[in-house]
Predict the 3D structure of the following.
Amino acid sequence: MRIPAAEHVAAPTAVSATNAGTVRDSLDRWSAHYGIDRSLARALAWMESGYNNNVVSNVGAQGVMQLLPTTWDYVETVLIGHPVAHDADGNVHVGMAYLHHLLGAFRGNEHLALAAWYQGERAVKQDGVYAVTKPFVAGVVALSERM
């Protein structure tokens, strides 16, 4: 299977082995904290940013997990209940809290949770998975099988 490129992500700059290792450690810690499969967490972060916390998409999604500011605010306010540092570890923390929420909203269905990550929870519930979302989901799933 060919893994599709994440079209919405700006071209990442080089990530040093040290930074990538730090991001992987953060992904492993927060995914364990939220009961998320480590390979899924790593694959999603790689698909979104290549583990680069400096990436900002053309729609304003930021960091390792490519979170929109509105998503960050929702997670801090509703899901976590307190502010989270705006650094790579905080980005991963917020991302894992949000993915945990989506997995719960879709009863553990990783494909639907990933679709909701990409196109929005409400859109998946109302309209199903968009055609444009399917390559993203397939890419993350394929990556998770290799991580």
